[in-house]
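== Sequence, structure tokens ==
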Amino acid sequence: MTIVHVPAHVPACPLLDSQPAGAQDLATDLRAAAVAVKNVQGRAAAVAAPAWVGDTADAHAHAATGFAHRLDAGEAALDRAVTAADRFGERLAGLLGRRDDLTVRRTGLNAEIDALAAEVVATVGDDRLAEFRQRAAQLTARADDLRVRIAAWGHDEADAEADLVAALRSVDTAAEGATAAVAPGRPETADLARRLRALRGDPVALATWWRGLRRAEQEALTTEHPELVGNADGVPVADRDEANRGGLGRDLDLYTRREEDGQLTHREERILANATHVADGLADYRDLRDTATGTHLTELIAYTPGLHSGDGGVAVSFGDPDTADHVSVNVPGLSTESASLSGNLDKTLALHQAAVADDRGSVASVHWADYDAPSGNPLDPSDPFGQLDFGAVALPGKAEAGGERLSDFVDGLRASDEGAPAHLTAIGHSYGSTTLGHALAAGLPVDDAVLLGSPGVPAATAGELTAAGVWVGSKDRDPVTLLGGGPLGHDPATAGFGGTRFETGDGELRAGELLANHTSYFEGSSLANVAHVVAGADDEVTAQPPRGADDGSHLTLPELLVASSGASAAHGLAEAGVWLWEQAPFGGLR
């Protein structure tokens, strides 16, 4: 056969030298520094007008004003640096996506080249020569085009890094910071902050207004008022994350220094403890990446370390709810506080991974703990306030207030959502299901609601509670689920309620395992079914008959407690018998 010039393989697209998550970390560190500097600058400006008069007062005011002015140059420089780092991260995420596309094209093209080469070698004679040459010419043209695209990708990566370096160098001296401070386009945050506060409570209008701001204006607001931006329902989740991480860094630095100086108040001590718990919880998952963007998988959507009777509030998402196809908001119950974050994040991550495994679209899974859930230690006589707080678990008051905050949060997610509205599922466990129930009764805009281990909800039927699909996970050997009909409301697992009860397993009967039955809904068949609901795979959910629709063999709470005590005693006797058998001397009991 006459020679056919089959093109050579296209080489692989290089790896990114810098990673989006690294750029995100750089921006977070710079933002935390900017927030800290702005705090000091604000205090300096506040003390520039002393209450006394005279030469000493004038000297004090002059010194304080000059110090604040110099800090303003540092603020301006850091604002520029943060904006540059954010832009760098966005460009890296775009480059990462382009690289994935180029890699898919390269793999497919090289496979076609190999296939043509194999056909040419295996063919005897020139019957297919024209066909082979035409295919070779087409492959060569595609290969040349792909090489050009890969080269352009490399140039764009180099340009992104060069632009970041240039931006940082442009504000790395005091003189350059002073120039940035008086630049004509520098945002004035006072009016912006007033407008943001006025729009809180209207997340749709706030989301529209925020998207209309220049990036420099958004960044200035974020560093000047991180607690305001980070907890403003309607602000995009990625921007809330940036603000809250900046505020978190400021709190850790400020209150750690005050602690070292012996100046920490009791309230500040609680804030520092809560900030530390949040930082530790995020650190546990810092190596997880969003496969689509290369950024950190976790998003800190709410951070209120001084609220909720000192317990603090927090909301963390695995994935970005603004871009995901399926979003879940998980509301925990009793003893929810910043200190319990790590353990609860494990459950939300397990749910996230199970929902992703359903492969029905992208997923974001939120752990929402920004309400004053009952907590405290009922057995600690030295803490009467803790005992009183724990006792609130028997009353609906905190669930009602929490339901209002949950509604605001979900309204914010709906407002900041990009593209087609996400399929949104709200999940409440234990007292969190009662909290969710109050939000649903007030019109919470979700597509599905999951009630796990519920002690009661404020409606007798699912139809009265919400127009959303209602799913119920309730183990018959979970004593908390048998409290329905009490002050917290109705049992959603009963036949008359009308929800869809799904399989969870019964749990162990022994008294020592009853608590484990209540805390294990994010495991086994129960976890799988909740994940199916979250992913919109309703057809995969395995059902379980509701209470009252079977043969009546389910137990009431008193019957369960009696049966579990008997099972524990029998289990103890059996274990003792095994021990005696094993310990008896040869020829004795055996």
